[in-house]
Structure formats: structure tokens, C-alpha cells
Amino acid sequence: NIDGQIFVNDIGYTKIVPMTLKSQAPVALQTFFMDVGIPTELHTDGAGEMTGKDWRNVLNKFGGIRQTLVEPYSPWQNKAESEIREVKKQVARIMSGTRASKRLWDFCAEYVAEIRSRTARPLWKLNGRTPYEVVTGETPDISEWLEFQWYDPVFYRDPTTFPQDEPAQVGRWLGVSHRVGQALCYWILPE
């Protein structure tokens, strides 16, 4: 992936959907709707991929979601800008500390966004809850995030070799694999 669509609200909920092309923004929007839910309103910058026909078709398909735009040359109106800056700083810190390949930036960015959304912040609107909890209405289960840190070395077994007793293999933990398998399924980078 060479790009990503970030979705942010005013209480710090952050979702990143990696993309191979900017033109995939409408697909990222649909992914966001499937994973999180359908908002009543979106406030975006004036980027072509977020104002084009395909993007508008997705907004209309899901109930005519109202879209407002940031005024030109007014980045302070875009709440996503400060969150993008914070996510980038944290991704850079983690990637540098682990000496991971730059090609894995998207896994790290998703990991950072998921952790930030599940971490309480000192915002009055949160009332002591996490952004994830306020958005979804569910208390976040953080157990799948506690086992490993991003890019930790791990042992794993290839599920295709069951029932033979194959030895465990070494890999790197890249994060939780949502919509793949059961609970506690992870993305693993083989050695």
C-alpha cells in the first residue's frame, strides 16, 4: 500500500484504511462503514477522491450522508490533520525502534490507530471513556492487543499442516486481523 484513508472524529476515534491508489478512497469509505458504522455527516478536505462521483455515489448509497468541506487553504478546520500528525509521529517512533521495513508502514499505522482509539483521553466529551466505546457503544476488549507489541518476534504454527505435529515457526506480529478468522487472530510476517 502506498496511501491510506484516515477517518477521525472530534473525540479521537481514528480508523485507517490502507490503499494501493488514492482512487480507492470510495472503497475505503465503504470499508469504514462496514467496520464502524454509517455516520450522519462527513467533513472532508477538497481532495478530488473525496469529492468525485464515486465518493458521492457511496454517500448516496448509504442514506445520503451529508458532506461538508474544509475551506481552501484552511487546514486548521480539518480535525484529521492533528490526528494524522500524531499517528505519523508514533508510527515513525515504532518503525525506527523496531527497525522494521518501511513497506510495513500500513500495518503499523493501523495498529497505532487501533490503540489510540482504545485509549482514554482527557476530553470532557469522553466522560472517562475511550473513543472506541463512545463510537460503538461497547466497552473495548483489549485482550487481543495485550499479548504482543507491534513487530514482536512470535512463534506460530501453520494451520494447513494440522493434524501433523509440525514445529512452530518464527515470525513477526503485525497486528490484529479483523474480519479474518475467530477472535485472537493476528497478522504474522513469516521469517
Residue windows where pLDDT falls under 50 for at least 5 positions: none
| Radius of gyration based on Cα positions | 18 Å
Termini distance?
A: 20 Å
Question: How are the strands of the biggest sheet laid out side by side?
Answer: 5-6-7
Main structural class: alpha+beta
The coarse overall form would be: globular
Strand content: 15-25%
Could you describe the largest sheet, including whether it forms a barrel?
Answer: 3 strands, antiparallel
What percent of residues adopt helix (DSSP H or I)?
25-40%
| Total DSSP helices | 6
Q: H/E element string?
A: EEHEHEHHHHEEE
Q: How many β strands by DSSP?
A: 7
Mean pLDDT, to the nearest integer, reads: 90
What does this protein structure show overall?
- Helices cover 33% and strands 19% of the residues.
- The protein is an alpha+beta fold and 191 residues long.
- The chain is globular, with a radius of gyration of 18 Å.
- The mean pLDDT is 90.
